[in-house]
Structures are given as C-alpha cells and as structure tokens.
Amino acid sequence: MTETQPSPDSDPQIEAEAPQEPASPTFADLGLGDAVLEALRGVGYETPSAIQAATIPPLLAGRDVVGLAQTGTGKTAAFALPVIDRLDLTQKTPQALVLAPTRELALQVCEAFEKYASHLDGVHVLPVYGGQGYGVQLSALRRGVHIVVGTPGRIIDHLEKGTLDLSELRYLVLDEADEMLKMGFAEDVETILADTPKTKQVALFSATMPASIRRMSQQYLNDPAEITVKTKTTTSATISQRYLMVSWQQKMDALTRILEVENFDGMIVFGRTRSVTEEIAEKLRARGYSAAAINGDVAQPMREKTVNQLKSGALDVLVATDVAARGLDVERISHVVNFDIPTDTESYVHRIGRTGRAGRTGDAISFVTPRERWLVKAIEKATRQEVTEMSLPSVDEVNETRLTRFDDRITAALAETERVDRFRDIIAHYVRNHDVPEVDVAAALAIVAQGETPLLLEPDPEPSVRPARAARDGERPGTARDRGTDRDRGGERGDRGDRGPRKAPRGGFAMYRIAVGKRHRVEPRQIVGALANEGGLRRDDFGAIQIRPDFSLVELPSPLPAGTLERLSDTRISGRLIELRPDTGGPRRRDGDRDDDARGRKPRHGSSRD
C-alpha cells in the first residue's frame, strides 16, 4: 500500500490520547528504531501524519489502541511501523495478524509492511485471502512467517484446518473495522479475537464508531487509548472527476480508448507499483504513444530528463508511482488517470492535484474494479465532491475521433500547395497509365498511410464493460427496479418458509441458492457484501434476494462471469459455506443444510450452527 502524508491543506485535529506539541514531531521523536527510520527515509517520509504521531507511541508502549480516522490519513503506517519495530525475527510462528475487509486492501497492507521492513533482514509477510490457491499459503506458513495479513473468511478457514498457528500471536490489527462489519464478517472477527491469546496487543482502526464497534472494543480490548483524527480533504473545483468500472483485465484497453477520445494535452497515469508503471509505459509505446515511466528505480538524472520531455511536449504520457510524482508541477498536464485507484483519499487528492493547477481546468479519471467500488464513496465523503461514473468509450466514438484526426491531417496537407501540385501530377500519371479512378487511388494511398494499424476499429462482438443494470434495462438510475425494495431484499418474502412462492427472475438474471438463511441470522447486506467481495460482482449485479428459514435465493446475472462459481466455492457467510448453485425450483433436499462436520470439517467455536 502506498502511504502518503497529508497535504499542507489538511487540518488535522487530534482528540483524546493524541499528543499536543507546538512543533511537528519527527519519526525519530516517536521512538522508532534505526532500521525502520532508514526505510522511511528511503520512501521519502519526513514527518508523521496526525494519526501516526498520536498512535505510534502508545502502540510502542504496548497499549491497545482504537483509532478513528478516515481512509487516507496514513493509518497503515500507524500500525505497521510499531509492529515491525518490535518483531522478534527468531520466532517462526506468526507474531502479527492484520484483518482487512478485502483482498485488495490485504495485498496493499502487505506491500506496505514489506516496504517499511526493507532494512530488516528476513522479515516474512504473507497475504491470506479467498480466491488464491491454498498451496502457496500453506507452503509459506510451513516455512515460517512473521506477519499475516488476510481477510476474515480465509483466516477462519486456516484456523479450522489447523494450518495457521496463532498461539504465539502478539499483535492483532483490525483495519477498516466498520467495513468488515458492514460486509458481514462480525462473527468471524469476534471468533478470531476470542480464539487468539488474551495477552495480545490489539489495534482497531475504523472510520466511524457504530455501536457494534464500540461493543467490540469494550469486550476485546484492554483499556485502549482512543484516538480521533479529523481531516479536511478538498479537491479543486476546476477538476472534473470521473470513474470507470472495469475489471483488471480490461484496464489497458480502457486506457487506450480514453487516450483515443479524450482531448488531452499531457497526461499522468498512476500505477500502484514500479512494475505496473513499466508495463503500462511499454504497452503504450507499442501502441504508438509517446510514454515513459518514472518510479523509485529511475535515477534522478533520468527522472529530470523525462519530466523536461513532458514539459516540452516531446512526451505526452507519464506513467508514475505516487512517490515518483511527488512535487511534480507541469502546466500542460490536462488529465490524470488512476490506473490503480488509491485506497487512501490523501493519495487520491495528491494525484489528481497534478492537473487543474493555478485556476486551470483538469480531468481526473479513475479505474475502479467491482471490489473497489466502496473507495469511490470514501473519496466522495472525504472530499465532499461527486465522482461521476462514465462509460467506456465505444468503438463508434473511437472511430469518429480517428476519422476527425484523419480529416485534419488531409486538410493540413492540402494547405501545402506546392507539394500538393507535385503529387497531383504524380497521381495523374498513375491514373493515365493504369486507368484507375482517382478516388480509388486516394483510397489506396490511405491504406499505405495507415501502415499496419487499421484506421478504424471493428465493432465489438459484445461490450467490453457491461453497463449498469439501469441502463441495460432502459431505466434511469435510482428507480425502485434498480435499487431493489425492502421486499425484494429479503423483507416479507424472507418469512414465507421453504414453501413460499418463488419470484421468477427477470430477463438477464437467473436464480441461485445459497445454504444460509434466516435461522443463521443472515441479512441481505451480508449476502451482497460476501458475493461482491469474493466473486468480483458489482452491487448492481444483484436482483431480488429472498431469505428463507434455511437457505436464501439470490438473483444473479445469467450467465455468471467466468470463474465466479470457482472463486465463491470457499466463501462463508455467518461462518457457513454458502454452497452457491443454480436454483432448480424443486423441493429441497433434506441434507441440503447439513453441518460442516459431515464434510469432515471441525465445528467453529462460538458459531451459530444448530
């Protein structure tokens, strides 16, 4: 995870246990060791953010902490730095466990740990999440890891299999705790809290403090220091902010189409890692764009040369990481594209602030995968500005743009009258000797001019990015059909029992059955959260949800995207495997709700199974 420090425009206010100092403390003032401080210097951190300054000292002192801060205040470093500083590298069983709501956040937290531990030899960090094969995780666990970062469901799976030993756990971090509870992981989180050593130190971070978080804090944390950080994060009103829903595989095609249709001068494309920036730049150059990458591996002289090329117009697209683009101010940057959307709002604000400077207008476009959609809401909440959804530029739009540019080139060539007169004689000579109409000669010359790349794209066999359901159904967003009603989402229908009437799925949808129902205390939001997170579905991929006593029925797209059923094979809700399968509408098998014990799995401690 790329951690950025709050901008000078932020106005942090620290309450409760936060230290009040007249001058900003340094990381060394907080009590961190030399190896960690060296790593921080390497990534360019100079002064701690408000949440870091308030949280690191009590964590280093061994105290439990509850940190209330919005996404983007630098809280990953706030818990990662003390953990790394206090690791015992001789202990091979996991010492620290970080729970995150999504696999993307888990991976980014892992990257942050590795970055901050770069000057310590032999620190092993393991991401553990659904959708990844068990083999890689099991091999790493057998070799020994110091820090495990994972989603609650997969952590529970490893605990039940006996493949994850948390008996010597010293630190437990709950990152984005409110998001985990919203997604239905409350029971899993509480089981992990209850089944790990009572002597562990716990840090809980949340953007809000609902009653459920307050109760969890009181029950599982020991006299925690409560730290609240309020920030004012704003973006320039001159920047138009849009986002595009895409899968990871579609990002490069989406970027190419945006470059085709957007009227841009200079552009910065932000990637999450160094390797991603290099790959994007290489692919753009292969497609005919003047593009270059700058990241932590690029030497300062080359970085300065590349930035000067961007300023002069010799370079049109700069692909960069957050750190490499820090302090970059180039007047001709009209567009910023977040190829990988940042998970912290401060980083987002810093990125899009590279355009729209000094009163000029700018455009910011973010690529958002289905599992990252919650980040758009977090950004809107933090910046108090709307980020509007855009559609992938169509083939017709791309072709129209290409034709316009082709026309412009012809018009510009016609203005060179002397050269046109010379070539007119050449064309006339060809027409006389080959008896070919002049329009056919012009078409042949256009073929010669286009080279290997076709002037126009072929029509898509199907849309690369499925439009929102409201658009697909011909309805405006926000209608009852698009949102679903309480009855559709498992209200009265959920009380009718197994024999209640089934609602026929609408066009483009099919009915699926999952093996959790009312007696498992399942709610529609848990179903949507689990299937969206683990299966890669969008929130508007869900139709009606009918919750029955022992199972639930869910309308999902027909057919499901490739690989969805496989990704959901190990998904749990309320501690139970969901066993997603198409609903046939016939009578339910008596063994359809069998206990996990029948599959040879150990029953979970504290579960609600009957």
From TrEMBL:
Domain Helicase ATP-binding: 56-227
Annotated localization: Cytoplasm
All copies of domain DEAD-box RNA helicase Q, residue ranges: 25-53
Superkingdom of origin organism: Bacteria
Sequence similarity: Belongs to the DEAD box helicase family. DeaD/CsdA subfamily.
EC number: 3.6.4.13
PANTHER family (UniProt xref): ATP-DEPENDENT RNA HELICASE DEAD, DEAD-BOX ATP-DEPENDENT RNA HELICASE 47, MITOCHONDRIAL
Alphabetically ordered keywords of this record: ATP-binding, Cytoplasm, Helicase, Hydrolase, Nucleotide-binding, RNA-binding, Stress response
Region entry Disordered, spans: 1-28, 455-509, 575-610
Main location: cytoplasm
UniProt keyword Isomerase, yes or no: no
One Gene Ontology MF term: ATP binding
Lineage, uppermost ranks: Bacteria, Bacillati, Actinomycetota, Actinomycetes, Micrococcales
Ranges where the Helicase C-terminal domain occurs: 254-399
GO cellular component, one term: cytosol
Tagged with keyword DNA-binding: no
Known catalytic reactions: ATP + H2O = ADP + phosphate + H(+)
Name of the protein described by the UniProt record: ATP-dependent RNA helicase DeaD
Function text: DEAD-box RNA helicase involved in various cellular processes at low temperature, including ribosome biogenesis, mRNA degradation and translation initiation.
Organism of derivation: Microbacterium aurantiacum
Enzyme class: hydrolase
SUPFAM superfamilies: P-loop containing nucleoside triphosphate hydrolases
InterPro entries in UniProt: CsdA_RRM (IPR034415), DbpA/CsdA_RNA-bd_dom (IPR005580), DEAD/DEAH_box_helicase_dom (IPR011545), DEAD/DEAH_RhlB (IPR044742), DEAD_box_RNA_helicases (IPR050547), DeaD_dimer (IPR057325), DEAD_helicase_DeaD (IPR028618), Helicase_ATP-bd (IPR014001)
